[in-house]
Amino acid sequence: MTFDIYQQVFDRDGMPLEKKARSYQDQLIQLFEQSPEGQALQNEGIEAGWPDMMLEFGMSYLSVTPPQMSPDQLREILFDIFPRKVSASADEAEEIIRELQAFWQFMRREFQLENAAACLKVLDDKAARQLKKEMSDPANFGIAKSFMMMGVERGFDMSSEEGINTWMAAYNTEISAGAGPRIPLPGERSASARQFHNRLKPRKAGSSRKKPRKRKS
Known about the structure:
By secondary structure, this protein is mainly α. It has helices at residues 18-34, 36-43, 50-62, 71-85, 93-111, 116-122, 125-136, 143-153, 161-176, 191-199; strands at residues 86-87, 215-216. The protein has a two-stranded antiparallel ribbon. Helix 2 runs antiparallel to helix 5 (93-111) and helix 5 runs antiparallel to helix 6 (116-122). The longest helix has 19 residues, at 93-111. The chain starts with 17 loop residues before the first helix and ends with a strand. The model is unreliable at 184-215 (pLDDT under 50).
């Protein structure tokens, strides 16, 4: 069965149709993993997970799939949504760009998408440096990501539910005692962070990621 890259996965309001969107995302990622571009990543020892997350953010927040994604929307995902929502080290920036380069090369070769070349121009060495900078800046973090990254810095295992609960208990104890740094509330964010928060659409509850190494906050 041929995969339809242009299939409709949104309702009239631009919200993802949960089952259709999940099936679209899973099938496309499976095709990518089996492609020469995906196999090249595996030969480099890279277990690709970032294209999957890019697809989910594109559908959940911007109501676009790859054929509709503009370079500006790709930049928004990379430099606004990733730093805000993904609890990952800034040192992963180069790998993120490498994986997305491979994905968009696949989009250009396999589906001849007209926007693929323009999106690939976004994914250069300059993008890796900018992404690393944005992912290093706590001012870009959302509340949940701030909490997660603070736990990592304190030595808690934030990859497990037990570790998260342990850190939450420790954090609440410290705050009750008036000790330790307090994570800013939404009204205490910078003007730019508030503007970004206001333009994001809430994501429907549902799908979890298959690869746990990148935690969304």
